[in-house]
Amino acid sequence: MGHLVNPIFNVSYDAAISAIREAHQNIVTIAHLAIHQLNCHEESWGAEAKRLRVDLGSFDEESIIGKTHERFVEVVNMAATMERFLDALSWFQTEPRYRGLSVGECHPTTSDDKFGNDLVLVTEDGRIRVRCEVCDVVSQKAGQNGKEKKDLKNLGCESCVPTDEIDRFIVTSPEFAKALTAHTRKWKTKSYRYEDISANSSSGTHLLKLVGLTELVQ
């Protein structure tokens, strides 16, 4: 199955942000028109809106929009995910520690590729410095759909946080960030902690940096 928005590889922060922002704007504009033009009885509005197909048309070769149509519900989900990406990229770009990096790999509407991550930042010579899993989970439960467990596995933190030069993050919604960092969790059974960083964005995106127990002791 193709991506709603195609992956981006080996570009600058500015190039990635510009491409994602343009794709997001186009998708949101078309989705607005589609839902406003939905013509059905109130009794079946929910069923029809859920199945509404958004015709994205055809874009020029420079566009990263990869589909000609998608369900409205999925468009909403992917637009929210793209907003998390934009917040994260803007934060990394201005943070001194990461300012000199570039975008090695970026899946704006996410990917289940077990050999990669949603967002990877690299040095000039191609060394990986940052790996991120990105999601817009609405739930306030840490165990929602096993999402945290899956992200930890994808980040290589299934058993522990590796002691290497790579920083690992879960980029997510304020609700899910609150759930994942809650004091009431059974932290004694876990080999990691989170450093909770706000992206200071209008959508409230949080970057949760994985911290190993050995780092906490130091």
Short description:
With 218 residues, the protein is α+β, with helices and mostly antiparallel strands. The chain has helices spanning 13-36, 45-51, 72-94, 147-154, 174-180, 213-217; strands spanning 8-11, 53-55, 69-71, 102-106, 119-122, 128-134, 167-172, 192-198, 206-212. The protein has a seven-stranded mixed β-sheet, with helices on both faces. A two-stranded antiparallel ribbon has the order 2-3.
Summed up, the helix count is 6
Oligomer: single chain
Lateral arrangement of strands in the main beta sheet = 1-4-5-6-7-9-8
Summing up helix and strand content along with how strands pair, one would put the structural category as alpha+beta
How many domain modules?
1
Parts with pLDDT < 50 across at least 5 consecutive residues = none
- How many strands in all? 9
First-last Cα distance: 46 Å
Strand content: 15-25%
Order of helices and strands: EHHEEHEEEHEHEEH
> Major β-sheet, in short?
7 strands, mixed
Protein model, in words:
This protein has one domain. Strand 5 and strand 6 form a beta hairpin. Helix content is 34%, strand content 21%. By secondary structure, it is of the alpha+beta class. The protein starts with 7 loop residues before the first strand and ends with a helix. Helix 1 packs antiparallel against helix 3. The model has no long low-confidence stretch (mean pLDDT 91).
Q: Helix and strand layout, with pairings?
A:
Layout: E1 8-11, H1 13-36, H2 45-51, E2 53-55, E3 69-71, H3 72-94, E4 102-106, E5 119-122, E6 128-134, H4 147-154, E7 167-172, H5 174-180, E8 192-198, E9 206-212, H6 213-217
Parallel strand pairs: 6-7
Antiparallel strand pairs: 1-4, 2-3, 4-5, 5-6, 7-9, 8-9
Helix pairs in contact: 1-3
